[in-house]
Amino acid sequence: MRLVHVTDPHLTDLDGVGFFDLRGKRWSGYISWHKNRRKKYLPAVLERLVTAVKAENADQLLLTGDLAQIGLIKEIEQAGRWLGELGPVEQVMLVPGNHDVYAHGSADNVQREWAKYLFHDLGSGSDDFPVVRKLEGVSLIGLSSACVTPVFTASGKLGQEQLERLSVLLEQAATERQLVCLLIHHPPLPGMTNRRKGLADAAALQAILEPFPPMLVFHGHLHHNREQQWGDSRIYCTSAASSISDASYRVIDIEDNGEFRSFRMALKSLAMESGDELEFATVDEQTWQLQK
Ligand SMILES: [Fe+2]
Ligand SMILES: [Fe+2]
Asked: Which ligand is nearest to the CA of 98?
C-alpha cells in the first residue's frame, strides 16, 4: 500500500477581499498574508507538487489541513474546487487545520463544503471526528484539532469527546490487528512546539495513545520537515506544500510479508533544475521492518 502525505498548501487567494470580510481576528491574518505569506507560498509551486504527487499513484493521499488562509467562505469554496481536481474522495483523506477553521463561521463552511473529503470513510460509518478508513490491514484515523483561537494564537484542541472516541477506536484496531496511522494538523505530543501554537490537550492525547501506539502519525502546522520517533511510532511533519523554500511530500510504502510489515519512507523536496524548472527530488529515505 502506498500513502502520500501532503500538508499546509495554503492555496487560497485573498485578493479582492473586502473590508467587511475582515472583522476581528481575520484582520491580523490578512495582514500576515499580505506582508509575508503570499510571497512564501506560491500557487506555481503547489501546482508542480500536485503534478509530482499524482505521478506517485498513491492508494491514499493524506492531507493534514491549512488549505486556506483566514477561513472565508470564498476560500473554502476555492479549496473545495482544488480538492475536486486533486483526486477522488475514496483516495483523498483530509483533516482541517487552524487556518481553515480560522474565525466565526469557518467551521460550518468547512464541514459543509469539504464534507466528502472529511467524512468519507471506508468502514466506520462515522460522520464526526475521529474518522476511520479501513484498508488492507491499515486503519487511517483522522482527528480534528482545528478550532477558533484568540488573535495571535494558533493552538488546537481535540476535546474530551473526540479523545474518548479515539480511545475506543484504537482498542478496536488492536483487537482487529490493524496497523494504525493517525492524521492530525497540530503536533500531537507535549513539547513538540510552543504553547501558542501547540495542541492544548496533547498530554491527554499522549495518555490515550500510550496503550495502543499508532505505527505512523502525520501532522502539519510547523511548515518544516521533521520527524520524531516515539517508541516504535514514527511521527512525521512535512513542510508546506506551496513553500518556495522547501515544499515537500512524503511517500510511504507498506508491505505485509506475513510475519513482518516492511516500511519505506521517501521525503521528496523542491529542487531547482537547470533552466529554473521546479522539480522534486528525494532528500531522505528510510526503510524498516516490524514484527506483526
Ligand atoms: Fe499552516
Ligand atoms: Fe496550522
From this structure: 2
3 state DSSP class of 49: helix
pLDDT at 124 over 70: no
Q: 273 C-alpha vs ligand 2 centroid, how far in Å?
A: 30
Chain segment 172-196, per-residue pLDDT in tens: 999 999 999 999 999 999 999 999 9
CA of 228 to the centre of ligand 2 (A): 18
Q: What are the boundaries of each domain within the chain?
A: 2-291
Of the ligands numbered here, which is closest to the C-alpha atom of 197?
2
For domain 2-291, the question of CATH label 3.60.21.10 is answered with: yes
Q: Is the pTM of this model over 0.90?
A: yes
**Ligand nearest to C-alpha 96:** 2
The residue written with cell numbers 520527524 in the block is 227
Q: How many residues does the chain have?
A: 292
Specify the pLDDT at position 10. 97
Secondary structure tally for the chain: helices H, strands E? 8, 12
Using the mean position of ligand 1's atoms as its centre, give its distance from the Cα of residue 220 in Å: 7
Closest CA to 174 of 215, 143, 130, 145: 215
Write the pLDDT tens digit of every residue in 263-276.
Answer: 999 999 998 765 67
Task: List the 226-230 sheet strands across, edge first.
Answer: 131-135, 138-142, 179-183, 216-219, 233-237, 226-230
Please report the pLDDT score of residue 126 as a whole number.
Answer: 56
Ligand 2: distance of its center to the CA of 237 in Å? 12
| C-beta pairs of 171-175 under 8 Å, 24+ apart in sequence | 171/211, 171/212, 173/139, 173/141, 173/212, 174/212
Ligand 1 centroid to residue 58 C-alpha, Å: 23
Closest C-alpha among 5, 3, 4 to residue 240: 5
Q: Of the ranges 9-18, 45-54, 137-146, 168-177, which one carries the lowest mean pLDDT score? A: 9-18
